[in-house]
Amino acid sequence: MATTEDRRETDSGIEIKPVYTSEDAEGELELPGEFPFTRGPYRDMYRGRPWTIRQYAGFASAEETNHRFRYLLERGQTGLSVAFDLPTQLGYDSDDPRAAGEVGRTGVAIDSLADMELLLDGIPLDQVSTSMTINAPAALLLLLYELVAGKQGVGGDKLRGTVQNDILKEYIARGNYIFPPRPSMRLTTDLFAYCAERLPSWNTISISGYHIREAGSTAVQELAFTLANGIAYCEAAIAAGLSPDEFGARLSFFFNAHNHFFQEVAKFRAARRLWAEIMRDRFGVTNPRVQALRFHAQTGGSTLTAQQPENNIVRVAIQALSAVCGGAQSIHTNSFDEALALPTERAARVALRTQQLLAHEAGGTDTADPFGGAYFIESLTDELQSRARELIERVDELGGAVAAVEQGFVQREIEEAAFAYTQQVESGERVIVGVNRYEEHEPGPIELHRIDPEAERRQLERTARVRAERDASAAEVALAHVREEAQGPDNLLPPLREALAAHCTIGEICNVLREEFGMYDAQ
């Protein structure tokens, strides 16, 4: 929280008064589960169903990540969350020259059906829900998941989980795109339609403000640009002939749980209120299940410090508590060592236990919207809603989220906010404990996770073996079918599934699509 003499304000420039009274919180509160769902999407919230503990994991090979999944599930995790390495996110195979040195570094390497089978070995897919953080090649990873489930004898109607599939925020905040925005939007909406038919309980997109905040946005910008992207996905789906009253039930959101506890609680409440009004007023949605925003929260990775990393345990606990008090449907808590390396098992266990402590010892599941009616929280909720709505209107004036991204508006807004934040930290106006105040100049030793140096070699050998042992003719025919369908208007997922089942690799399929769609260049 920035301070200037007696003035205090959040990172969104919202001034914090010394005290709040009933004059700052007007209007009657609806009950949880009632429009506009400010207090939560469900009437009984966590008393009926606690949030899903979904720890993000993925590194090195499919075998090693499978071991980490089993480790977390055995210790009480209730859902899987898969991190993919950079080559996979960009649609390159592990043996592509551009992947050298990056295989398995930021997540697990998945090149083919063989890798996905190893990743999910021994995990009953009809009993767990799985989130996959993948965007440009999201359709391919979801299809691999479906194919593995089929080999387990689990039908698509039994699969539960979420695929991120949010390409717009890649152009805005992360840069892990492959194709230009409009063919990318086609893949997104093709996935919507495919799941409606074959995977009806799967959340087809996780519209992500998390990475927007990680790129340096304010809370208001995170709200506004995330919901503006949500509007764009709805418009694209409607243009593709889908009904918002149907596909809207499978939309989910992904927000950052950042440092200012009270602002974060208010942000989550404002997000639900805004989205309910957007779905009703813009798209004529009458189904309350579609109007009610559901979201996953992850604690702020960019807030973790390499200095005094044990402080991160406290940061993560506070941030996770804001997500609990704000009504998240699932939560990931970062490990305290992530500013230094991938998490060790010990650090991952501490992060997992943080959520379990909030649920079982801190009263986190006892009541819905525990801050509802608090003058400060209600005032912050109203202010965040108002400012986010104004910014959404600016995006509308530019022609919507896709046009705003193509014009660079969203990127410039976030860059300016990130620069202002950095200036505040460097000047000491914004205090970061252990970084610009209360420093210690002799850091203590900390155990770091080390990736097996042989993992990349084993991955490359497995991918080569897949190509050598598959039916080469069937793979060639399947890739040709992908190319043909990419040139037309039909749903691309069936031919993509055919190619993956023929043991074509992610990189081979993406190369075909690159040739047909082109590649996006932000310059």
Task: Lay out the secondary structure.
Blueprint: E1 2-4, E2 7-9, E3 15-16, H1 45-48, E4 52-57, H2 62-74, E5 79-83, H3 86-89, H4 113-119, E6 129-133, H5 138-151, E7 160-163, H6 168-174, H7 181-198, E8 202-203, E9 205-208, H8 210-214, H9 219-239, H10 244-247, E10 251-257, H11 261-281, H12 288-291, E11 295-299, H13 311-326, E12 330-332, H14 345-360, H15 375-397, H16 401-406, H17 409-427, H18 455-469, H19 472-486, H20 493-501, H21 506-517
Parallel strand pairs: 4-5, 4-12, 5-6, 6-7, 7-8, 9-10, 10-11, 11-12
Antiparallel strand pairs: 1-2, 2-3
Helix pairs in contact: 2-4, 5-20, 9-11, 9-15, 11-13, 11-15, 13-14, 19-20, 19-21
Describe the protein's architecture and organization.
The protein is an alpha/beta fold and 523 residues long. Helix content is 48%, strand content 9%. The chain contains 21 helices and twelve strands. The chain has a nine-stranded parallel β-sheet with strand order 8-7-6-5-4-12-11-10-9. The protein has a three-stranded antiparallel β-sheet with strand order 1-2-3, with no helix packed on it. α13 (311-326) links the parallel β11 (295-299) and β12. α9 runs parallel beside α11 (261-281) and α11 packs parallel to α13. It is globular, with a radius of gyration of 23 Å. The two termini are 35 Å apart. The mean pLDDT is 94.
